[in-house]
């Protein structure tokens, strides 16, 4: 139904005498509308609408592979020993296979220690619980999809993890999920543990209260987007579209995915389709320190 509507829109566009200088913008608008429709389709209740809220009985055998050997877990992720404060000590991989519907979800287990080397069970449990709750929802949504399609659908779900920040102050781990179901989608969730306090932090914590950091960062990212598009006509971001303003990226929110790179610079990671057409993948933007210097809590801006 959505594809038919999009084709009708395209036919309407084709029937209009379009001035030369607007022709390319019209084509881009149609392309973006198609991709947005696909994106919305995969966000319907059957396909990943907030992962669903209720657990669904398993439709196939569940394989649980557990590895409690830290060196092997780290080697498989191609990451070195993560230090004496916070590290990945094990992982579990949940697999389900239903003909053309498959899921493979890797769930890391984090261990936190205090400065004397004693385990910080509270910090470890809070972080591990949040990661487990998040990945459980992904598996629940996959099972809901299997049930809704009676196992006749085509869908591959892959969830993995990677440590993206490990400095003297922060430990940040990225959970990445890719879905292939006719089209494809990729989305992220990054968790941050403050090694000093043992608390899980958010974007709010690294900025001063009342600083209006979302507006400052949004302005800088849009500046970078415009600069990239001016330098390379193959790049396109969902901003400044006056013909289809509903497609425009609305800006950074306090729930945005971020991490500190090796130089201690704030970097934002976007889901596929979040701020650009699908062919742009999952863009990242690093914020220059001078842009936010007066509104940050500097103790969090530490390099690896």
Description:
By secondary structure, the protein is an alpha+beta fold. The chain has three domains: 2-41; 62-201, Heat Shock Protein 90 (2-Layer Sandwich); 206-300, Actin, Chain A, domain 4, CATH 3.90.640.20. It is built from six helices and ten strands. A seven-stranded mixed sheet has the order 1-2-3-4-5-6-7, with helices on both faces. Helix 1 packs antiparallel against helix 2 (20-41). The protein is flat.
State the end-to-end distance: 50 Å
Count of helical regions: 6
**Class from helix and strand fractions:** alpha+beta
What value does the Rg take, in angstroms? 22 Å
The coarse silhouette is flat
The low-confidence runs, each spanning 5 or more residues with pLDDT under 50, are: 1-23, 36-47, 49-84
The top-level CATH class of the largest domain is Alpha Beta
Overall pLDDT score = 80
- Report the sheet with the most strands, covering strand number, pairing sense and barrel closure: 7 strands, mixed
Number of domains: 3
| DSSP strand tally | 10
CATH superfamily of the largest domain: Fervidobacterium nodosum Rt17-B1 like
Sketch the topology as an H/E string, one letter per element: HHEHEEHEEEEHEEEH
Neighbour order of strands in the largest sheet: 1-2-3-4-5-6-7
User: What is the CATH topology classification name of the largest domain?
Assistant: Heat Shock Protein 90
Q: Give the DSSP E fraction (strand runs of 2 or more residues).
A: 25-35%
